[in-house]
Amino acid sequence: MSHPLPPFGRRFLDLPETFWRRVRPTPLSDPYWVAQNAPLAAELGLSAATLDAHLALFAGNDVPADMTPLAAIYAGHQFGVYVPQLGDGRALLLGDLPLGGERMELQLKGAGRTPFSRMGDGRAVLRSSIREYLCSEAMHGLGIPTTRALCLAGSDETVWRETAETTAVLTRVAPSFVRFGSFEVFYHRGQHDAVRELADYLLQHHFAECRDADRPYLAMFTEVARRTAELVAAWQAVGFCHGVMNSDNMSMLGLTLDYGPFGFLDAFDAAHICNHSDHAGRYAYNQQPRIAHWNLYCLASALTPLVEEADLRAVLDQFPDVFSRAFLDRFRAKLGLFVAREGDDELVQALLLLLHGQSADFTVFFRRLSRFDGQGAGDDVAALFAEPEAWRAWCDRYRARLADEGSVDAERQAAMLAVNPKYILRNYLAEQAIAQARDARDFGEIERLRQCLSRPFDEAPAFEDYAALPPEWAGEICLSCSS
Ligand code: AMP
Ligand code: MG
Question: Is the entire prediction scored with pTM above 0.85?
Fold first, then answer.
């Protein structure tokens, strides 16, 4: 072949077969390219021509004989209920490639049934695959830890969801896809040796900084809790709702993992539920920190064979403070406050209450605030509020707070523009790209959006349309778990 692939590592095979099953992907009929992420390919040492030449591999149709695709085993708490066996029902690990100083694992998602598919067909539909492709890269652009997306192969083969839909295979990329549920499954089966083996594997490959600690397993759990707190604080700060924070969708590395019915807030609604199947609002925007904490309890239980319960409990007890600090740091940065002051928490809470009461657009608000000068009235910001007086009352407090730290407009504005994105993946933008792909087999919008979202803080005149307030119909988009 004229564009040979670099050799894939097989790091996951360091673990015995307790943790995975070998599975050949199910070929996808007449695949075609939907998207190729050239910048990520380059980082992985794949030229654009090499990636392009390997559609058959990335559709799951022609896997080299020396590759051992495998499906990992895990369990998890889904909507609060323990499900003893899940596992990769439609994802297959191909192997790993170097990126920077790390190794990145490549996984095909939607490549057919596995021993863990239960009632599922092993496929992913084009609609949700486009959403995952775009959102992975949008999150990466925002600087938020996430699995990434290398490419997307489509097919006219259909599967049944609420209606017949065409399928796709997404190649996603991460240093590891190990989840909280990867531990839960072995703990609940009483296979405590496997819990230890998996913890050792993670310490060896992913938590080098914990290896030399007095108590490495405790150090690792502390680090997972810290990363999880930081991750959810980062989500809150950009208005991201994950939608299905089951413990099997929680990454041990603190990555955003498993993009399903996620959504970014348009008008700020603290109780927003992005997943229409989530009737009780378990995973609403304002529940995410609490649920992260709850999921860490599930993980802690699974680690009791390795760590004293009192030590696990101490880490769990600290989580609310660790989260609150991370959250406040994020929002101080969003407000351009360089110095921490007593009362900042209250100022932030008052703002969120105001945005909620006035249904102001979260992203546009912070972007416009980034150009606010300490003297003016902030008229373009005021225009986002049904009751501008309510905004002015908060704005007076904010102005006083800025004066209190001697805030310099130009410095503050530059710092705020670097943390308050101009562009986010609003649901309606993803919908437009999906409609073009589905109805006209035109994938240009996917690439255009990916490019824009890879630099969400930059002013980009060519992408100005993506920064507008969402149209009326955006509120009617309905997302369910079905993907
Ligand atoms: P999710 O809600 O996407 O995190 O998936 C929960 C579990 O269901 C995981 O074990 C998935 O692998 C599995 N799953 C989801 N969709 C399918 C499908 N279409 N076919 C097989 N397994 C699936
Ligand atoms: Mg999942």
Answer: yes
